[in-house]
Amino acid sequence: MNKWLITFWRCGLAFVLLLTIVETGFNEEAQKPPLSEETEQCFECHSVYTPGVVEDWLTSRHAMITPETALKNSALERRISSETVEANLRNVVVGCYECHALNAEQHKDNFEHLGFQINTIVSPNDCKVCHPVEAREYSESKKAYALSNLRENPVYSALVETIISLKKAEAGKVIPLQASDATKHETCYACHGTEVMVTGTTEIATDLGDISVPTLTNWPNQGVGRINPDGSRGACTACHPRHSFSIEIARKPYTCSQCHLQPDVPAWDVYKESKHGNIFFSKAYDWNWSNVPWKIGKDFKAPTCASCHNSLVTTPEDEVILPRTHDFNARLWVRLFGLIYSHPQPKRGDTYNIKNADGLPLPTTFTGNSAAEYLINAEEQAKRESQVKKLCKACHSTTWVNRHFEKIDNTIDETDGMTLAATNLLSEAWKQGYADNSNPFDELIEQEWIKQWLFYANSIRYASAMTGAPDYATFKLGWWELTHNLQKMQHLMLNKDSGKLKREQK
Q: Which of 265, 340, 430, 448 has the most CB atoms lying inside 10 A of its own CB?
C-alpha cells in the first residue's frame, strides 16, 4: 500500500513540475519583447544567409529590451540618454530595420532592398536617435576627428606619406613613390578612419536573384574617425562591435589594444606589464563587465582603459566617482602623446586648426613652447587631474596618489628635455647642411629624431602614468633607447662633420 502511495505521489509531483516548466516556458515566450514586422522579415533571409549576424544580435541588449522599457530605468542604470523615442521605435526591440532604415534621406548609401529602403552603414547619426548625449560627446572628441587630423594637417600627412610611401632604388638612391589607397587603409588610416563614399552600384548574385547594392570606396573600415556616407564622423562599432554592441567588449582593454600599441602608443603593452594589468589578467573572469553603473571594488577590482577614460564609475553604494563620457579626452589634462613634446590637452577635437608661434598646425613650437590659446588652461588642467585622482583614491591613499602624479610630472619634464636635446641636434644638422629640412621626416638623422619623441619618450610617459611597467620605462623602448638614440644622432653628426672636413682639405 505504501509503495502505491509513494508511486502516486511521485507521479503527481512530476506532473506538477512538468506543468511548471511548460507554463514558465510559455511565460518566457510571452515576456519576450516584440520584434517589428520589418525586422521579422529581415530574419527570414538573414537567419539563413548571415546566421552569425543574427545569433550575435540575439545575445545583445538591443534584442532583450525595448526603448520604452529602457527609459523607465533610474538615471544611474540607464544606457539610453534620450528622454523620449519616436512612437514607431518605442515598443519594439532595436532590430535590423530599426538601425538600418533610420535617416534614409541623409544616407547616400541607402538602397532599395526587397521592398525596403536600407542603409548599408549604421552611423553615429543613427545611433543618436537613442543615444544623443554619447553621440554629441564623441562628435566633439579627437577620436571623431582622427581622419581629418591626419589628412588636413600638412605636417601629420607628410609624416604619414613619408612612412608608408613605396620605395625604389635607382643609381644608388632611394626614390619615394605615392602609396596606394590599399596601403594607406591597412596602416595609419585603419585606426584613424577613412572617408567612405558611394560611387555607384554593384550587382551581387544570390540564391534570391541579383541584388543591387551601393559601391563603397575605402570600405570596409571601422576607424574611429571614419567619415560616413551621411556625413557623420566616427564608428560606434570600433568599440561596441556589431551586432552585439557589447558594453563588456567595449570595457575590456583588448578593444583598445587594436590601435593603442607599441611603439608609438604603447598603452596596451604597458598595461600588460603593470600591476593593474597583472590583476586584470588574474581576476577579470570574475568581474561583472556589464553592470551599469560600474561599481568599483564590487564589479571590478582594478582599472582598465574604460574605467579611467570614459565609464560611469560609482562606489558600491552608488555614489558617482566619475560620470560617463564618450569624449575620451575629457578627463585628460596632459597629452602624453605629443608632436613633438607633451602639452596640455587641446580645447577641441579638430586639432588641425591649431597654429603655433612658428605658424605650424602643431600644439608646440620646435623648441617646446605651447600654442596656449588652443590648449586648456591651468585651471581646467587641475580640475581634470583632480577628477582622475578621485578614481585613484577609491583604492589608494591620498599620499600614494599624490606621489604617483608627482612622478608623472617629473617624467614628462625629463622626457621633454631629452626630446629638446635631439631637436637641437637636428636643428644643427639642418644649419650645417647635413640634412635638408624641406621634408623633416625622410633622412636618417630626421628619422632617428622621430623615434626620440614618437617611440621612446612616449613609452616612458605611458609607463610612468600607468602604475608601473619598469622594463618599458628602462630598456624596452624606454630610457636606454632614448639615450642610445641621442648618441646615435650625435654620431651621425660627427661622421658628417668628418666627411665635410676631409672634402675641404682636398
A: 340
For residue 238, the 8-state DSSP code is G
Q: What is the pLDDT of residue 26?
A: 43
Residue type for 53, please? Answer: V
Asked if 393 and 424 sit in the same domain, the reply is yes
Question: Does residue 108 contact residue 116 with C-beta atoms inside 8 Å?
Answer: no
Cell of 338: 605629443
Q: Is there a domain that residue 326 lies in?
A: yes
Q: Please name the amino acid found at residue 98.
A: E
Dist. CA 128–CA 143, nearest whole Å? 17
Per-residue pLDDT reduced to its tens digit, 468-504: 788 889 999 999 999 999 999 999 988 876 555 444 4
236 DSSP assignment: G
CB-based contact 335:384 (threshold 8 Å): no
Neighbouring residues of 29: CB distance < 8 A, sequence distance ≥ 6 = none
Per-residue CA distances from 479 to 318, 466, 485 (Å): 42, 16, 10
> What single letter denotes the amino acid at residue 426?
L
Q: List the beta bridge partners of residue 198.
A: 216
One domain, residues 233 and 263: no
Answer for the pair 144, 163: CB distance below 8 angstroms, yes or no.
no
Residues 177 and 282 in one domain: no
- Give the range of the structural domain holding residue 495, as residue numbers without chain letter: 259-505
The beta strand positions in 47-127, using DSSP E, are 110-113, 116-119
Instruction: State how far the Cα of 109 lies from the Cα of 98, in Å rounded to an integer.
Output: 16
